Amino acid sequence: MTVKQSVAWQALEAHLQKDIVPYSLKQLFNGAGAQRFGDLSITTQGLLLDLSKQKLTPETLHLLIDLAQQQGLAQATKKLYSGGKVNRSELRPALHTALRAASSDQYSAVQIDGQYVNQLVDENLLDMERIASKIQRGEWLGYSGQPITTVVNIGVGGSDIGPHMVCHALAEFRVETKFPLDVMFVSSMDGSQLAEMLQHLDQGSTLFIIASKTFTTVDTLANAETARAWLRKKIPSDSLIGQHHIVGCSAFPERMAAWGIPSENQIALWDWVGGRYSLWSGIGLPIAIKLGMASFKQLLKGAHAMDEHFQNAKLHENLPVMLALTGIWNINFLGLKAHTILPYDGRLKLLPNYLSQLEMESNGKSVTNAGEKVDFDTSPVIWGDVGANAQHAFFQLLHQGTPAYYADFIVPVKRTASKEYTNATRVQLEYQQALNLANCIAQSRVLMLGDDVLNWEQSIAASPDRLYPGNHPSSTLMFDELTPESLGLLIALYEHKVFVQAVVWDINPFDQWGVELGKQIAKSTLSAIQKRQAGATSAEGAEFDASTEGLLNHMFKHHY
Ligand code: F6P
User: Fold this and answer.
1) Rounded to whole angstroms, how far apart are CA atoms 312 and 236?
2) Active-site pick, 314, 373, 392, 557
3) Cβ–ligand 1 contact at 515 (below 6 Å)
């Protein structure tokens, strides 16, 4: 039996038919009056979650809380925080919360394989600081004595997207360095990003971080080999390359060593940190290098504040719980299978991509913890972009298209312009933030009310082409200002949201077996390509379907 057959789920189904289906969002607003915002919005540490534009009532939230309780949320959360093996298929804890709690004694008793987790985390932070500050002070020298002025992170998935997103979002917080310092990211397997980048870099002043939890990911190792081939052009030995130009972060020190990374250039990672939950660990080294350790710790502090809130706040005042349950409502009861993330802030451009990995890789599952096939939807398809830019791209579909979806609007209230600007520029930038806020609020309102919004102000005679059905649910997350701390808070909010949904669905959010088969088949396909390159006329020994065979033939016919 899955959660769908449970008492709490059935109660929600009955409530849906009786109290929600007959009404539009506009009617729900009209019925509740001004009180609706007060009833359906919650705040913690300056982060406001407005759920009033969701197609639900306070009663829906009560029933959803019953569902979460019925599914054992309190026990599951306790297990997560105490280092229990919440990753069932790999028999591992998922202790990303410990990475941001080093200064508290919450984890002082938690040991994994005989090692105290908080000690490991403290040592790790010291290693990161040692490397980051040496680079920032201009004391990390390349093989010829030149200071390092470019750091390139080579990684993919969780070893790329998280640090990349944070470095992009918080670029204004970059730390002062002795020499101008660039931090760049390379992930694509095809080498195209790296090839373009290398043309502008200099071997003597470039340091590569090879970030791979497993240190077996072919995308990352292929880019790392290309980088090393490029370094070899100028640098006489691999030991000089390893010593001066490579830093590694992995849970497998022996693999880093075998690749040629000396132990002093290695940062440890552990199997109890999931890839997509790893920006708080040594995988966050590019963040520490670009923003400085103080800002990195502020990021951890913000996430830790959300960890405490999630652990301690009552369920109806708990932001991750409410965000998660609203998602469950949208997906499982209202049948919405797509979710758009709309940050109204150019600095958060990479956030939708980050959240698509976090959510879809975690909860894109179809088997329960008991091994039963689910009979309900799990993670929706997640996509998004900077909201104001998306208004000129896919908002047409949001307003007048046919697929059913829900949206998260994310926006900071203030945007403090750098003191370097003149007054006139600052005034103009403040105007731009007002413009941005107005668009954010207006768009969620139009999604909710459709063309009825005009009845509130004026009326127009609309042609069918100009009609807006509205009735699209959305949440708005508003916070004071984008800082390392508020970004930490925001990311941890979504991490815990994903966890709560997994608990309700009774699935494992911490493994990702769905990415393995493709990797395996790519290996045998590569070997078939290489055989043909060596002169074989067809994929000897390999049994391919007609499409694969056809594509391979086309490739070779066109002079691969
Ligand atoms: O293939 C998926 C994945 O395993 C992600 O879960 C992970 O974040 C990414 O690849 C990178 O893995 P690694 O850090 O081991 O190179």
Assistant:
1) 57
2) 392
3) yes
Which tens digits make up the pLDDT trace of 217-276? Answer: 999 999 999 999 999 999 999 999 999 999 999 999 999 999 999 999 999 999 999 999
Least Cα distance to 184 among 141, 155, 204 occurs for 155
The residue extents of the domains of the chain are: 7-30+45-82+297-505, 116-291, 516-557
- Tell me how far apart the alpha carbons of residues 440 and 100 are, in angstroms, rounded to a whole number: 31
From the candidates 361, 399, 472, 485, which is the catalytic residue? 361
Spatial neighbors of 271 by CB under 8 A, at least 6 apart, are 90, 92, 213, 251
**Which residue bears the tokens 């640090």?**
163
Looking at the domain that runs over 116-291, which CATH code has it been given? 3.40.50.10490
Distance in Å, CA 157 to ligand 1 centroid: 5
What Rg, from alpha-carbon coordinates, does the chain have? 25
Cα separations in angstroms, 12 against 100, 407, 500, 502: 36, 22, 17, 18
Q: How far is the CA of 218 from the centre of ligand 1 (A)?
A: 10
Q: Is 158 in the pocket of ligand 1 (CB under 6 A)?
A: yes
> Is 540 tagged catalytic?
no
Superfamily covering domain 7-30+45-82+297-505: Glucose-6-phosphate isomerase like protein; domain 1 (3.40.50.10490)
CA of 159 to the centre of ligand 1 (A): 7
Task: Spell 391-421 as b/e; 16+ CB within 10 A means b.
Answer: beebbeebbeeeeebbbbbbbbeebebeeee
> Which residue lies with its CA nearest to atom 13 of ligand 1?
212
Contact at 8 Å (CB) between 390 and 342?
yes
Q: What is the pLDDT of residue 113?
A: 86
pTM of the model: 0.96
- 73: its two tokens: 């949320």
Residue 214 Cβ contacting ligand 1 at under 6 Å: yes
